[in-house]
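INFO worker-7 received task bundle
INFO bundle size: 2
INFO processing item 0
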Amino acid sequence: MPEPTRRGSREFLPSANQALAELEEATGKPVLIVDAPDLKVLATIRRAGPEDSSHVLRIKGGENRAADYLIVFECLMALRGGPGTQAVLRSSPEVRRQVISAIVP
């Protein structure tokens, strides 16, 4: 697994910094930034589940400012339902059954 990156090792645009801060504030969990040079896209985030200590933001290296746009987008998508409203299907078989029964007639 690639090594975590400190936020200061790459300078983000203010909008990306704000989106990261909003995600951390809303969820109470930090965002772990990982440099992933083999990533097929510029940036992607995995929202922390109940058992996770942090969200994981993977970014392709370099100073491509389009990645900052995707960071903002990914953070906002992680927040789209508000904190705590998303079911984490891997958390338990019972949660999985509840979700399936809610969507299958």
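INFO item 0 finished
INFO processing item 1
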Amino acid sequence: MPEGLRSPTVFTPKTISEAISTKLRNPEARFWAGGTYIMSRPGFYPNPNQRDIISLSGIQDLSRILHADRYIEAGAMVTIQQLLSMGSFSFSKELYNAISSIGSAMVLNQATIGGSLCTSDVRFTMSCVMATINAQVEIRMISKSAAARWVPVSKLYDRRGNFLFAENALLTKIRIPTDSSTQYQFISRTLDSPMMNPSESVIFALQYAINQGSITTPNLCIALPDCCFYMSQDFDNLLSTLSFPITQERASRISSRLAADLRSSVRQNADMLQIERAARLLDSVLNEINTNYLAG
């Protein structure tokens, strides 16, 4: 081995409690799920500052999937492909397509739910989609009590896309709503590749319902992968004022407001073209909703 380099120590806990205890004894070690993102980073290995690893692959509780009447509950080590296979009859076509578009077959089979939600400072499609449909996650605090909390996915990140619990908690489960009695519609779009080209990619997701020509209960999420995670109750309230059919001028004013909000939310490394792409995506989606309303 080259001088100054070291191989990481790999811990293999069998229970959630054991994983948390290991983290308490080794605070610099990192939890390791599928490793899809971590291993793709430049300089991951060899690295003189290589951190030790707490592998979660041996914890059976994190690989279980439960079907309930109104949700699917999946452990953090469930892969995206396993989630798609188990949820194929529960997810809407639009939600299924949004999740399946996350990556290639190799990525879907390797990447885990927990790993896709817990990257420290880059947001991917899973975060945006799950936040939009009001999914919740169980997190276990890194403490002797290992207290469990259920937290909406939308509350896991700050406005600039940083994961708020990076060293403080272990994400153990996700609960995804599947209640078909509520007639929500869902739209998801991704421009460019969040993994390969995060500085130009845009992830867009919108859940809403239409009642007597008006948008009701809209939930919009936009992620600029390496600089912004945008959800705003004020902007959702603005969308709620729309009554269809709308004019192109009205759609453009709403999109311009979004661009202004994003400029005030992003990190300094944001590309203004990225913000413009997000605004145009919203403009396109509003026109799509308008066209569908007029057609039917």
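INFO item 1 finished
INFO post-check item 1: The chain has nine helices and twelve strands.
INFO post-check item 1: The chain has three domains: 10-55, 60-177, 185-295.
INFO worker-7 idle
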